[in-house]
Amino acid sequence: MPALSFSALEILPALLDHSKTQTIRPLMRHRLRTKFVTSHGIEHSDLYEHIPRFKVGDVVTLYWKMRSKAKWYVYPNYTTKQDVGFLTKEGAMAFAQDQMDIIDNKPIAFTKLRGKVKITEVFTIEMQKCSNDINAFHLYREQASQGSQIVHEMAKRDGFRSAEEMFEWFDAHYDLLQPRGFAVYRWFWL
């Protein structure tokens, strides 16, 4: 079964309360192999296209830090601004009890398995940082520039507090000085 893993602390609250209903991922690079005949014989050429990884109707399992050895996490740990992973539930709960005064008397321990979702919509977008303004970004969907209300809605669906926070995160991870293609996957929780 296909899987998606998340590690951005900015979206963790939305992932925990299931208000996250989409994710934005770089398009997958798919190799196309072509053959053509020349006077020297058959030659091969590798071409690439960028395609979405999932399609509508796919059931996808969501994880928090899937490749980590930890099975349980405690969030938030305000002392280090990171989640803390444990191999056992007992270890996570003991740590949470020690941190209760820091975590507003609400220890939150959760497993890396966040649930299953069914993909309902897939579309591509392009993001780019404006060269003339360091804090301005463009988001294009199907050759049309998106208005600020739609971009703000996309950021909220993705679990970010604002469109600015979303663009800052994507710029830090994908360097949006050049236009970059992404796939947007929307779902409902099973």
Task: Itemize the secondary structure elements and their pairings.
Elements: E1 3-6, H1 12-16, E2 22-26, E3 28-38, E4 41-51, E5 59-64, E6 72-77, E7 82-86, H2 89-98, E8 109-111, E9 113-129, E10 137-141, E11 144-145, H3 148-157, H4 163-174, E12 180-189
Parallel strand pairs: 1-5
Antiparallel strand pairs: 2-12, 3-4, 5-9, 6-7, 6-8, 9-10, 9-12, 10-11
Question: How would you sum up this structure, described in words?
Answer:
- It contains four helices and twelve strands; from the N terminus they run βαββββββαββββααβ.
- The chain is α+β, with helices and mostly antiparallel strands and 190 residues long.
- It folds into two domains: 27-113, no CATH class; 116-189, no CATH class.
